[in-house]
Structure formats: structure tokens, C-alpha cells
Amino acid sequence: xxxxxxxxxxxxxxxxxxxxxxxxxxxxxxxxxxxxxxxxxxxxxxxxxxxxxxxxxxxxxxxxxxxxxxxxxxxxxxxxxxxxxxxxxxxxxxxxxxxxxxxxxxxxxxxxxxxxxxxxxxxxxxxxxxxxxxxxxxxxxxxxxxxxxxxxxxxxxxxxxxxxxxxxxxxxxxxxxxxxxxxxxxxxxxxxxxxxxxxxxxxxxxxxxxxxxxxxxxxxxxxxxxxxxxxxxxxxxxxxxxxxxx
Length: 246
Prior knowledge:
By secondary structure, this protein is mainly alpha-helical. The protein folds into two domains: about 5-155, no CATH class; about 160-245, no CATH class. Helix content is about 50%, strand content about 10%. The protein has twelve helices and six strands. It has helices spanning about 15-20, 25-35, 50-60, 70-75, 85-105, 110-120, 120-125, 160-180, 185-190, 195-205, 205-210, 230-245; strands spanning about 40, 45-50, 130-135, 140-145, 145-150, 155. The protein has a two-stranded antiparallel ribbon with strand order 1-2. A two-stranded antiparallel ribbon has the order 3-4. Strands 5-6 form a two-stranded antiparallel sheet. It is flat, with a radius of gyration of 24 Å.
């Protein structure tokens, strides 16, 4: 291994949620491809298969300048000269579960390229599932999918509340809007070209409509995700957004 690698500082350390949030799209793709290189189809379906040969093969990438797998190899931090495949498997599985769980909680960062890899293996596809339909008392009920796959065992993970995420996003957007509005001086506005001024006026017309509406105290609106069917769940979400706009 390259003792001068910039990734030595994270050797053996699985990323925190903050570190995952800083990953670029390309790094996420490299992460998924790295995991996929260990997956083989077995009797129980897709499995991570780790052998000494595979470990040695991956370690050759440490000698290739800026190879995209280097950080992930260092993150696992186990090597063929002093560890066994079983220990490596457990660390790889833990690394995979943490990364895939982050994607499940933040589907907005999953691109079509990432989706293609995730959907190709049952080992990964659970990270794409946001909702599931269950039958309760002979009625189909839509519920949040909170399952993760840890080894061959399914586990539950705490998923973000959709209503809280929507309201938090609205607060952030309103704050950004206010910041941008306050940053614009009269002198700057007067210096704009006529067409730019017309565009601004057109985009701000909604203020006259919104300003004439009665302001009501902020409150949480209950969204029933346990509706009888998907159509009702969609209608609940649309009504929620409509109420917030009003």
C-alpha cells in the first residue's frame, strides 16, 4: 500500500453522515462500482464474496495514481498480509450498509446512473425503496419502507419524516429568497436592461396575489400516508402543498 496516500488519514474509518453529504456524484458512482465488484450471485441471491485473491487484486489499485477505488480501500483498512477474508467481509458489509442507507434517506442525490447500478442487484436495490404496499385487514396500505439489508438479514432504519423535510425546505427557501431580495440595491435595479426589468416584474407578479390573502398561524398538517391506495396518498400530498401555498 502507498504510505504517502492522502487517504491514510481516513484509514479504517467509515464516513460520517456529514462526510457522505460532501461526496460528489462521481464519488458515489465509484462507491457503488467498488461495492459491485465484490458482488456475486449465490444460492441465496446476490452476495458479497471476499477472498484473499480478491483482496490482493483490489490492493493493486493502491499503486495506480488517483485510482477511484483508493479511498474506499483505505476506508475499509484491512489488507491481505495481516487479516482474513471474513473480517474484511464484515467491514465491507458495514461500509456498504452505511453508504446505501444514506442514499435511501436522501433519494434526491440518486442519479439515473446510480439508479441503474442500485437496481441491478438485490444487494443494493433496497436503497431505492421509499414506500411499500402492505395488506392490512384486506386493504392495501401505503407505508414508508424502512428496511435495510445487513448481510442476509433485514433490519429497520429510522427514515426522515416527509412532512418535516417539506416544512424545513420551505423555511430554507424563504430565507434564501429574503437574503437575495435584501442584497439587491435600488442602484443595481435601475442599472438593469429594460428586458431584465420586465422579466423581474413578471416573475414577481405572484406577490400581489399572495399579499392579498389572509395570513394564518403556521401549523402542521397531518398527511395520512396510510391511505387505502396510492391515489389517496397522492391527493393528500397535493392538498398539503396546496394548503401551504395558500
